[in-house]
Write a structure and sequence with these properties.
This protein starts with a helix and ends with a strand. The radius of gyration is 28 Å and the shape is globular. The longest helix has 15 residues. β16 and β17 form a beta hairpin. The chain has a 5-stranded parallel sheet. It has a 5-stranded parallel sheet with strand order 11-18-12-13-14. α2 packs parallel to α9. It is an alpha/beta fold. It is about 25% helix and about 20% strand.
């Protein structure tokens, strides 16, 4: 116990203090603990030493690390006790907070300003008065009807849920698990069940994992899970739970000693509805900028309350622990006389997918385009730090920019180390109101083991600046299609994609992955980057260049003429709009045109010049393209056709942009292929392995 706290704090009714205390100036009841509720309770105590504070928590623990629960399943967090941050006894002794676990608020009388609280152990109901009431009830798992009240089916929201799962895992040693849902909790549970040694399948009704990501960044994650031995069933639902199996909507039966229901959550609003409080369009509790409900004496925070979104401007549910903590603290300040309006949410989120990191901030391209926003999209495929320094890991970055204002609307990243840092920097820039072009001038710490002199964030800013000014096309392109995670990208990866549970590790010589990464014109530089790539961890996708470094690797390990992927037209997302053949029209005197690979593939007999080096083209090429390396373009410029349009391609769009600019100045009709063969391959278009023209 902290020194002298008993003499300072006012203890709630029914508790004894060793020293007399003054009458309470204010009584606050908080319904729901954990992030929002406990953050508010402890802040209230710091702000007001005399206040009465009562926290009502339905579960058996009032303050626990709910985001850490999946990691106890695998043993990554070995001790359960590490997850329980505060107990009712410690809260009483240290803060003078009356925390009542296994108690449920069952009714609010707004006129009398009372709450009816029932003990789940005894059934006894007490009516407690309040001056201020804070609702932090969280959200409940949305369990599919086929799984409700079925044996061996669990959700994971509380320590009680975790205890039930651990008891089941210790009873009979389950060998097969099915995780229903491909969102954050589903992915984390699949990850940790797999690490525990349980054969695991993820089943999701969506066409991709992690709906907050755009399709081209999500697809490599399904590939990665498959390679690691976690099966992924997209566009599937569970229709029946058997004794030790589940049945899918296509009639197949999957073994399942354990089923995790992770199909999303619904806000706990029953108490708010009973009290007659207003709900918002999203189904959450409607609040103003000070988190006040339609009753000014009642506040709401956490997963049950709506938040204003910075990019869309609407009110929506954003179920993130960081926001709940921040908003609980803000409510305490408002109650104690220091109101501070909430900063609109950006929805910054991150997840570990068996060693690969996926993160996002703001809104994705799909949602923005559906809302009618005019956007520019920038892809980049850098390394986490300088390629010459050992241990560099690949990542894919995507920046979504308002085409009219240059405002940053969202960013996404998938890869190894450094993904978290880049998304956090971009989130900070968005919060500060920086434009996309401003990222070029963000000064970041640099040493070769941490980053690059031109950090990936700076590079996004350079590209955005060029595109905003119209001087050059982007270095990487957008995609409205994705490669199906079920389709292996090359013959050497068929086994990993089709039989994930029995698959051996992905061949290190996977030709698709190793052949589409080159962008550097210097052979010496390519050699250096190849060595760096060899030291780097396996990228997120087995053969998908979406996770590739922009440095070069070039080794062919397959027979000439082998085709890596089927045409993307056979796998285009349902109801996706047709591609715009000139995604970004020229806007300035020196502006140049660019075209997406998908749009180029739809043109009959285009003239394509691939400006990569010979060894890169020998490893992977586009059928019909003529190879004129940038390093010898000056000597071979007569081979570039003067008549008709010529499409310039490289590995990711950097060299082709420079060549396009040069040829445009020479009077040629040229268009840059945005994203190069990297984006071509990621769009699911055919790549010939081990051959070149």
């Amino acid at each position: 116990m902290d020194l002298d706290t008993r003499a300072v704090f006012r203890y709630p009714r029914g508790m004894q203090s060793s020293s007399p205390a003054p009458a309470p100036a204010h009584r606050t009841i908080i319904i729901g603990g954990v992030a929002g509720g406990m953050s508010g309770a402890t802040r209230l105590r710091r702000n007001d030493a005399t206040a009465e504070i009562v926290v009502v928590e339905r579960s058996g623990a009032v303050s626990f690390a709910n985001c850490g629960l999946p990691y106890h399943v695998s043993g990554t967090i070995a001790e359960r006790s590490a997850l329980e941050l505060q107990t009712p006894e410690r809260l009483r002794d240290r803060f003078g907070i009356d925390a009542r676990v296994r108690h449920e608020a069952v009714a609010i009388d707004r006129e009398a300003k009372t709450v009816s609280i029932r003990s789940l152990d005894t059934g006894h109901v007490e009516v407690e008065p309040y001056d201020s009431l804070v609702l932090s009830p969280g959200a409940a798992p949305a369990v599919p009807a086929a799984l409700r009240d079925r044996p061996g089916v669990f959700a994971l929201r509380t320590l009680d849920d975790l205890d039930a799962i651990m008891a089941h895992l210790g009873d009979g040693s389950p060998t097969d698990a099915v995780v229903v849902g491909g969102g954050f909790i589903g992915i984390e549970m699949a990850d940790n069940l797999h690490r525990r040694g349980i054969r695991t399948t993820v089943v999701t009704r969506g066409e991709q994992l992690l709906p907050s990501l755009d399709a081209e960044l999500a697809a490599p994650l399904a590939d990665h899970l498959a390679r690691e031995g976690v099966a992924v069933e997209l566009l599937r639902t569970v229709t029946h739970r058997g004794e030790r199996s589940v049945t899918l909507d296509d009639g197949r039966e999957l073994p399942a000693d354990l089923v995790i229901a992770a199909t999303g959550v619904v806000p706990e609003t029953a108490l708010a509805v009973q009290a007659g409080l207003e709900l918002g369009a999203s189904g959450g509790i409607a609040v103003d900028e000070l988190h006040r409900t339609s009753d000014p004496s009642i506040y709401a925070v956490g997963d049950a309350a709506e938040k204003s979104h910075r990019i869309s401007g609407d009110a929506r549910l954003v179920t993130l622990a960081g926001l709940a903590n921040r908003h609980g603290r803000a409510v305490a300040d408002t109650i104690t006389g220091s109101p501070k309006p909430a900063v609109p949410a950006l929805g910054t989120a991150i997840v570990d997918v068996l060693g690969v990191t996926a993160a996002s901030v703001g809104l994705g391209e799909r949602e923005l385009r559906a809302a009618g926003r005019e956007v520019r999209v920038i892809h980049s495929h850098p390394l986490s730090h300088a390629g010459y320094y050992p241990g560099a890991e690949a990542m894919s970055l995507k920046l979504i920019v308002d085409a009219r204002t240059d405002a940053i609307l969202g960013a996404q990243a998938v890869g190894g180390q450094g993904v978290d840092t880049r998304i956090d920097v971009i989130a900070t820039a968005m919060g500060a109101g920086l434009a996309a072009s401003d990222l070029a001038d963000v000064e970041l710490a640099y040493a070769p083991q941490y980053g690059s002199a031109k950090d990936p964030v700076n590079m996004l800013g350079y590209i955005a600046e060029n595109r905003a000014s119209g001087r050059r096309p982007r270095c990487s392109g957008t995609s409205s299609t994705r490669r199906s995670p079920r389709a292996p990208c090359c013959s050497t990866c068929v086994r990993a994609a089709s039989s994930p549970r029995d698959a051996s590790p992905e061949p290190t010589g996977c030709p698709s992955r190793r052949s589409v990464l080159g962008t550097m014109s210097s052979a010496a530089a390519r050699s250096s980057c190849t060595a760096a790539w060899a030291r780097a961890r396996t990228p997120p996708s087995a053969c998908s260049p979406s996770s590739a470094t922009t440095c070069a690797t070039s080794t062919a390990a397959t027979s000439p003429g082998a085709t890596a992927c089927a045409p993307a037209s056979s796998r285009r997302r349902p109801n996706s709009p047709p591609p715009d053949p000139h995604h970004d029209p020229p806007t300035g005197r020196n502006a140049m045109r660019s075209i997406t690979p998908t749009a180029l593939a739809a043109i009959d007999g285009p003239t394509i010049i691939d400006v990569r080096e010979v060894e890169e083209v020998e490893a992977a090429s586009v059928r019909g393209a003529t190879n004129i390396p940038m390093s010898v373009l000056g000597q071979r410029i007569d081979e570039v056709p003067r008549e008709g349009t010529v499409y310039i391609m490289c590995a990711s769009g950097g060299r082709s942009a420079r060549v396009t600019e040069y040829l445009d100045q020479q009077g040629y009709d040229v268009i840059n292929v945005a994203g190069g063969i990297t984006e071509w391959y990621r769009d699911g278009l055919p790549v010939e392995l081990g051959s070149g023209k």
